[in-house]
Design brief:
The chain is mainly α and 251 residues long. It has a single domain, classed as Hypothetical protein af1432. The chain is built from 12 helices and no strands. The radius of gyration is 17 Å and the shape is globular. It binds fe (ii) ion (2 copies).
Length: 251
Amino acid sequence: MTTPKTPVADVGGAAPAARPTDLQPAAADFAAAYPVRPVPATGPVDTAPIATTPAAVEELDGLWRAVVQETRTRGNDIHLPISLAFAERLCRAYPDADAELVRVATLLHDTGWAHVDESRILSEGFTGDWRKANIRYEHEKQGCDVARRVLPGLGYSVEFIERVCRIIDGHDTRPVALSLEDALMRDADRLWRFDQAGIALASSWFKMDPATYTDRLATEIVPELITQAAVDMASADLDRSNALLKTAVIR
Ligand SMILES: [Fe+2]
Ligand SMILES: [Fe+2]
């Protein structure tokens, strides 16, 4: 299965027709500010198993409680906490990023899956040109609606909420990252797949055996990562997961 790459430095490419037309200047600004790809880390890079550094205790518990219903679809109750733990790690590696923005956007980015036709998630969202499937656009829009519904009551400002939505809207379908925070959310969203739990869940969604799936992680997903810290974390996790699952033999 081939998937579109994430040409973070290629800001000249055409955005999907359905996307707002004001996104390219932000993508160009980001590409100019971070011309070296993958983006080198300026802080510590932790490549240990993600289970050793869960997401910060209690700090976002109010937000988690507000979206429990949304975590019960498409493995979000596994995908989102692991992605958040990776997001926090990435924020330590890139201290210039607005960590709160990255964390909140990552926690909420896929909550929209709970508000689309569940029967279409696997039939359309994980087959064919899945990143261009209509249901992908729908889950992004629905995720923004979740953010606008739950964040005001937790004290987040309107301006902050719109920055969160700007990241959520297009996180799967927009071909370019718009900011460092957007890039870190995207990398966190990919990094969870390299953990054993991610391989177990996502390989079943794509109807692949673990060896085929980990091959695909190496050839298709690692090259999409925007930051060097994410590349280092993914490579270390992939080595561990391949050894544990004996994918060199069971294929
Ligand atoms: Fe998504
Ligand atoms: Fe995701």
